[in-house]
Amino acid sequence: MKRIKRSDEVMVLTGKDKGKRGTVQRVLTNGKIVIGGINMVKKHQKPNPNLNIPGGIIDKEMPLDISNVAIFNKEANKKDKVGFMLDEKKGKIRVYKSTQKEIS
């Protein structure tokens, strides 16, 4: 079971976007994640008339390493660590380390 999943709200710990919050769009297999509106770069794109893709400079979200983000605890209004607990009904669940409450 992964500590951070798609649609989790996370906070960036390091880099140019330190302190910003966003929602996880994708979790990649190489230990990186893509967060909506975070780590934006300018990318030069060639036009492709067959696919109706215009050329020019576009803004694109680039992946961040998963170690550079922490899950955001809305109840405590701060970043938090992820732990695991065993539940009789659900099995293994993710919990916030500070409050021991389940991550929804």
Concise account of the structure shown:
This protein is an all-beta fold. The protein is built from no helices and ten strands.
Structure overview:
The structure is a single chain. This protein has 104 residues and is mainly beta. The protein has a domain at 9-74: SH3 type barrels, CATH 2.30.30.30. The chain has no helices and 10 strands. It has strands at residues 9-12, 21-27, 32-35, 40-45, 56-61, 64-65, 69-73, 78-80, 82-87, 91-96. The strands form 3 sheets. The chain has a 6-stranded antiparallel sheet, with no helix packed on it. The protein is elongated. The model has no long low-confidence stretch (mean pLDDT 95).
List keywords for this structure.
mainly beta, 10 strands, two-stranded antiparallel ribbon, 104 residues, elongated, SH3 type barrels, 6-stranded antiparallel beta sheet
CATH topology of one domain: SH3 type barrels
Report mean pLDDT, rounded to a whole number. 95
Spans where pLDDT lies below 50 across 5 or more residues = none
Distance between the termini: 14 Å
Note the main sheet: 6 strands, antiparallel
Strand content: over 45%
Order of strands, main sheet, comes to 6-3-2-1-7-8
Would you identify the CATH architecture of one domain? Roll
Please write the string of helix (H) and strand (E) elements: EEEEEEEEEE
* CA radius of gyration: 17 Å
Number of helices: 0
Secondary structure blueprint with pairings:
Layout: E1 9-12, E2 21-27, E3 32-35, E4 40-45, E5 56-61, E6 64-65, E7 69-73, E8 78-80, E9 82-87, E10 91-96
